[in-house]
Amino acid sequence: MPSDTTEIFRILTVAPNLIQIEVLDADQFKQDASDFTIGSYLKISDDSNTSIIALVQSFKIKETTIGGTAATTKPSFILDAQPIGFLDENGKFKRGGQQIAIPPNNVSIADDAILKGIYESVEEEKKFCFANLAQKQNIEIAVDGDKFFSKHIAVVGSTGSGKSGTVARILQEGISPSADQTQRGVLNNTHILLFDLHGEYKTAFPKSKKLDVNNLVLPYWLMNSEELEEMFIESNENNSHNQISQFRYSVIQNKKKHNPSVVNPSYDSPLYFSLKEVHTFITNLNNEVVGKADTENARPKLSDGTLIDDRCAYYFDQTRTFVVYSTAAATKASNGPFNGEFDRFVMRLESKINDDRLAFLLKPKKTATTEFTTEDFPTILKQFIGYNDDGKDNITIIDLSEFH
Ligand SMILES: Nc1ncnc2c1ncn2[C@@H]1O[C@H](COP(=O)(O)OP(=O)(O)OP(=O)(O)O)[C@@H](O)[C@H]1O
Ligand SMILES: [Mg+2]
User: How much is the pTM?
Assistant: First the structure.
């Protein structure tokens, strides 16, 4: 920029959020900045060498002939720029406001060194970079990786604006080893789990682990209490508290039955239980008749006369036939506490168990005849967060587009 710049531009307005500059000689002003455009940065300085950095927001051509006399032979234009920060005494970019002596006397297009100062101010070892400045492709935009990944991130934009593309780019960068890791020959320790709602990310990660409706192993017994109840209990039925208490009891007892070595399994423990057996248990409760004759103490009584002390020993393996309701003294028998209470509950369990759309969850088969049980837990976890041992990318994509 020549020392006498009064022929090139004129500062029209300086306000906290707007600096207006009239550019009189466009060719001189741009010099070799051929990519000067909306979104470019300007450096505006005063006599004492304080500089504000401002972002060009709009551009308009100024009428150069007034009253029929040409004021200048060249058309001039007006730039509206928004101040975004300033350069401190060491030339380092700082965000925020800074006073500038009025009128400022120099305007120039911010050079690469300034732009780098704005965007590449992150410490070298924390740099995480997934984008370049649109107006200047050679300027990388780095963020502090530690801060970036330790918070929630939202990628927002109107439809078709490139959100999915941006997410893919961020994740691709996230799984690739840093320069330092490459140099030391160590793996990038990240593992990314991507829930792909629309099945659109596979092509961006050709070497990813891919799970979908056909190969995802997610047995129901990994669900916690809330999830189980949400799936099987209809909370607006007026006996739902009984459904919950008996479902909970039978799940815990069934977990005990199948995991005898575990001390006091809880409702939420990730341990195998058989949903089919729980269904059978609830069915038996729903049909239960108890003996009321003198010595029978209201114990459940089967049609062959067996009196049941421990329901768990009889109710999981098969549906039982009970004695019939009777008021005769010798055969006195009446309905158990939940007889007929669980008609709808039993039907709901049946229809969920037989729903093909839920088969991946409720009937996951290890082989044609075996189920995944507690000892498969590590293998099940490994499909999500395990390391690939075949040199694949450390990302698991769960394609949810085919789940209903
Ligand atoms: N940085 C980019 N440069 C050029 N084209 C891009 C860029 N990012 C995305 N696109 C293209 O724009 C189109 C829409 O991108 P994308 O699917 O990522 O948008 P989206 O915001 O996720 O849309 P939707 O709201 O429909 O999910 C795609 O065809 C993609 O190839
Ligand atoms: Mg999208």
Answer: 0.71
Q: Give yes or no for residue 391 CB within 6 A of ligand 1.
A: no
CA 403 to centroid of ligand 2, rounded, Å: 18
CB 64 within 8 A of CB 72: yes
Structure token pair of residue 385: 């967060």
> Residue 44 in contact with residue 106, Cβ under 8 Å?
yes
Of 3-7, 99-103, 287-291, 296-300, the range with the lowest mean pLDDT is: 3-7
What does the alpha-carbon distance between residue 385 and residue 382 come to, in Å, rounded to a whole number?
5
Two structure tokens written together for 344: 């709808």
Residue 86: phi and psi, rounded to 5, are -145, 165
Sorted by where each begins, the domain ranges of the chain are 9-118, 124-190, 220-363
Is the previous residue joined to 104 through a cis bond, with omega within 30 degrees of 0? Answer: no
Contact 78, 62 (CB under 8 A): yes
Q: How far is the CA of 200 from the centre of ligand 2 (A)?
A: 8
User: Which tens digit of pLDDT belongs to each residue from 285-306?
Assistant: 999 999 998 888 899 999 999 9
Residue that has been written with the tokens 């961006």 in this structure? 204
Distance of alpha carbon 349 from alpha carbon 330, whole angstroms: 37
Mutate to test the pocket of ligand 1, among 164, 200, 201 (most ligand atoms within 8 A of CB): 164
Compute, in angstroms, the gap from residue 200 CA to the centroid of ligand 1. 11
The response to whether residue 132 sits with its C-beta less than 6 Å from ligand 1 reads no
Nearest ligand 1 atom, CA 200: 17
In the numeric block, which tokens belong to residue 236? 């607006």
Q: How many Å lie between the centroid of ligand 2 and the Cα of residue 169? A: 13
Q: Residue 166 in contact with residue 159, Cβ under 8 Å?
A: no
